[in-house]
Task: inverse folding
């Protein structure tokens, strides 16, 4: 949560920081601010609200030519989202400034100590406490800023990604990381900082990712000095070359990132399959599975650990793994798993799924499982993310940057990867007939084209959405492989349109939720022609007799449900195990259009942030 940007070099940092903050707004957007300075002057601008509002204020502030700047877009943890609590925060002397992402858990104790030494605080934030702790240490020990930052961080409990500067010595920036990601971009006599690399993608492709417990001093001449905060050991920067295109982080003609990302799914899935699904050669090639073949073949149990949409993908993983490789699977909410002293047995494999690779609970659960001796495999989208680096092995989804807060292409590419892994392991374990495996491989290669066809239903879905934009509640039902789809459809609707929605296994309806059904309760049913189809049709009859409106996702050519439901959306015919990818797409579009009609900000829904790096 929260986006951090910073710049030091020979250019004007203002446009660089502002563009960077716009690109990081997916991380939080309740308030924003920047500080810029040169050798004689500094200028602080903060607002409650979004980055665009900050730009308007800056238009009137032209009386300074700075060479250093730090900026922040906030997702509130400590203190309400207002101008006072917005970052950057200054120390009591007005000399030091900080932008901070994360939570300082012992901030209260530190604050009390600082107050007893005469410090005062204008905000409710933990970040203001940290910058004052740095000031206190610097004055008391009479040391340079980087040394004071290092000592302060050794007193801190919690998580942080920080940038600190001294406006009376604007020759360096001090950055540090524990739990919250920080990327440093290497330009021509310039250095850029971002919570990820997107802010500086159009300035440089060369990036250094700070590891946990590392800090760096960035100098105006482009020099970087990295060291370990605890051991004080110097670290040689490892420079990576980014491959992302600038176009992939822009809207590319779509009104919203979410709509762009829904429509990008054929390409995203093709990218996920590239080099792995080799239909011509009749094989699936996954290097990480080949490398750790014995671990996977000897595993007695698979535990999926994830949050939100990635948790829903994990549920699909459970169905896929049990179906294809007959291995017991458990699916855990990372936030619960981490505090339960989980039982990890020899030969357990823990698979962590995360789009961002930065979700705090998933990362913590991963570390616990690792300490307990499990083999950890990661499925992440963001290359070089914390989760991808902590795992023993893993696979990237290659969905490209997902900017819309509501996850869309991340989900379908996670499922694609899970299908690939399940089929590969089924081949290795010989739990699948070789001819059937070839059929599945061919069918999988056709999925992008089928989604392309499916996205053409957008106008129909928009029309259907018009009937439900005033709804207060909505129920989603699905069975088997489509039960996780019902959960995901409901999550998409609630998070971007603020309509209360719940997903259930269709057969559970009779055990409670049916009491909610009346003419004011729209029900979305995934009723593709597969196992238990007739039973789902019976559920539809039960709903219809209670006068609810039914929106059904059906297989192409279905006539039975068409006679019962108020609206049907057809999806191309596929094997049952592939339906979650296709059936989710109309539900993403339905939520999108309902939210648009209700005037909601679909890319930046209230209270949410793309990357949940706090507990
Ligand atoms: C929902 C959504 C969230 C994320 C969750 C996990 O649309 O985006 O529920 O899925 O916060 O995030 P990652 O996958 O980055 O770990």
Result:
């Amino acid at each position: 949560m929260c986006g951090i940007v910073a710049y030091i070099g020979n250019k004007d940092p203002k446009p660089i920081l502002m563009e960077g903050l716009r690109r990081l707004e997916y991380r939080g957007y309740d308030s924003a601010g920047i500080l810029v300075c040169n050798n004689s002057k500094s200028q602080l601008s903060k607002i409650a609200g979004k980055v665009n509002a900050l730009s308007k204020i800056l238009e009137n502030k032209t009386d300074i030519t700075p060479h250093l700047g730090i900026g922040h877009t906030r997702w509130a943890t400590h203190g309400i989202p207002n101008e006072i609590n917005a970052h950057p925060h200054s120390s009591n002397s007005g000399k030091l400034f900080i932008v901070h992402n994360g939570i300082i858990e012992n901030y209260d104790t530190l604050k009390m100590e600082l107050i007893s030494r005469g410090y005062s605080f204008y905000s409710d934030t933990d970040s203001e406490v940290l910058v004052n702790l740095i000031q206190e240490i610097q004055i008391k020990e009479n040391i340079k800023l980087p040394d004071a930052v290092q000592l302060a961080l050794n007193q801190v409990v919690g998580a942080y990604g920080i940038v600190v500067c001294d406006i009376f010595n604007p020759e360096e920036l001090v950055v540090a990381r524990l739990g919250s990601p920080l990327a440093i971009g290497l330009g021509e006599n310039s250095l850029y900082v971002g919570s990820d690399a997107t802010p500086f993608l159009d300035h440089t492709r060369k990036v250094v990712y700070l590891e946990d417990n590392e800090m760096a001093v960035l100098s105006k001449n482009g020099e970087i000095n990295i060291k370990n905060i605890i051991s004080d050991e110097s670290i040689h920067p490892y420079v990576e070359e980014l491959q992302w295109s600038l176009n992939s982080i822009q809207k590319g003609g779509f009104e919203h990132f979410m709509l762009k990302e829904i429509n990008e799914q054929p390409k995203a899935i093709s990218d996920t399959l590239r080099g792995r699904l080799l239909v011509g050669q009749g094989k699936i090639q996954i290097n990480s599975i080949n490398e750790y073949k014995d671990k996977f073949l000897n595993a007695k149990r698979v535990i999926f650990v994830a949050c939100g949409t990635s948790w829903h993908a994990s549920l699909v993983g459970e169905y896929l793994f049990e179906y294809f490789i007959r291995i017991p699977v458990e699916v855990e909410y990372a936030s619960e798993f981490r505090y339960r002293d989980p039982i990890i047995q020899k030969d357990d494999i823990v698979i962590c799924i995360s789009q961002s690779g930065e979700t705090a609970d998933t990362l913590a659960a991963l570390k616990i499982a690792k300490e307990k001796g499990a083999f950890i495999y990661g499925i992440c989208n963001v290359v070089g993310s914390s989760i991808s680096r902590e795992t023993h092995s893993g696979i990237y989804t290659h969905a490209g940057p997902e900017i819309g807060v509501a996850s869309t292409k991340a989900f379908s590419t996670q499922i694609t990867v899970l299908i690939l892994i399940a089929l590969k392991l089924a081949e290795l374990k010989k739990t699948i007939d070789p001819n059937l495996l070839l059929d599945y491989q061919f069918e999988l290669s056709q999925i992008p084209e089928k989604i392309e066809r499916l996205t053409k239903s957008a106008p129909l879905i928009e029309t259907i959405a018009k009937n439900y934009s005033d709804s207060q509640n909505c129920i989603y039902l699905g069975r088997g492989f489509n039960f996780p789809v019902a959960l995901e459809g409901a999550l998409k609707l609630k998070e971007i349109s603020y309509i209360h929605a719940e997903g259930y296994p269709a057969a559970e309806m009779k055990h409670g939720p049916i009491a909610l059904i009346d003419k004011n309760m729209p029900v979305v049913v995934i009723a593709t022609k597969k196992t238990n189809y007739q039973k789902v049709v019976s559920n539809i009859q039960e709903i219809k007799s209670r006068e609810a409106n039914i929106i059904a996702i059906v297989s192409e050519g279905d006539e039975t449900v068409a006679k019962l439901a108020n609206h049907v959306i057809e999806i191309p015919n596929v094997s049952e195990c592939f339906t979650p990818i296709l059936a989710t797409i109309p539900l993403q579009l339905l939520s999108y259009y309902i939210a648009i009609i209700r005037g909601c900000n679909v890319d930046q829904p209230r209270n949410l942030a793309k990357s949940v790096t706090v507990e």
Summary: The pocket of fructose -6-phosphate is lined by residues 307-310, 354-356, 359, 362, 406-407, 491, 495, 611-612 (CB under 6 Å). The chain is about 35% helix and 25% strand. The chain has a mean pLDDT of 94.
